[in-house]
Amino acid sequence: MTLRVAVIGAKGRIGSEAVKAVRAAEDMELVAALGRGSDLAELTAAGAQVAVELTHPDSVMGNLDYCLGNGVHVVTGTTGWTEERLGTARDLLAKAPGLGLLIAPNFSIGAILGMKFAQTAARYFESVEVLELHHTGKADAPSGTATRTAQLIAAARAEAGLPPQHDPTTHGLPGARGADVDGVPVHAVRLRGLLAHQQVMLGGEGETLTIRHDSTHHSSFMPGILLGARKIADHPGLTLGLEHFLDL
User: Fold this and answer.
1) Which of 87, 214, 229, 232 has the fewest CB atoms within 10 Å distance of its CB?
2) Does 138 participate in catalysis according to the annotation?
C-alpha cells in the first residue's frame, strides 16, 4: 500500500531534500509540497495521510492544529518545544484519537545513536558536557538535539545516584560555562560553514571519552524522516524522539 505524504516547509534546506526523498521512496507518494504562503487545505484535498512538518517555531503549532484536526498524522523536526507547547500538542491529540505525532529533535540515525551512547556512558563518569555546533541560520540555541541529549544524560546520572555537577571554584564571565540543562553544561557554537555537529565529553579519573557526530549534508536526515513517516500510524499519541521507532 502506498503511503500518501505531504511535506510542509518544502522550500527549505531540509524540506527540499525531504521532497526528493519521498518522491524516490517506492512505498510513498508525494501528494503535496507546501511552502510559505501555501494553503494547508491542499493537504486534505490531496488526501495526505502523513504530513512531514519542517518549518519554524512560529509556524509549527498552527500546522499541527490543522493537520491533527483534519485526520493527518504528523512527523515534525521543527524545534522550539517548551513544556507549554508540548501540553498544547497533547491537547490537540486528545481531540484526535488514533492520530500520531512524532517530535524528533534529530532525524539522523547517527545522531540518535550518539545520544544513546552518551546516555549509556553517563552513569560511569564523574563529569560530562555537551558541545553543539551549527550553521548561523539555526533558529534556536542550544539545539533541540543537545537539549534532549543533556536531559537523557541527567536522567541516567540521577538513576545511577550520581550527585549534580557543579563548579565551586570556577569564576569568570557569566555564560562562559554554557547553558545549564538539568545540571549538564551545554555549549552552542554558530559558525558559517557548519551544518549540524555534536560532541559529548565525559571525564573520569585519569581518562576522558568523547562521542561525536557530524552531519555534513541534509541528506543525512532523510532515512530518519522516511522511517518516521512509515511508523507514525502505528504509534498513536505523542512520541518524543525517533529512537522510539528504532530497535535500541
Assistant:
1) 87
2) yes
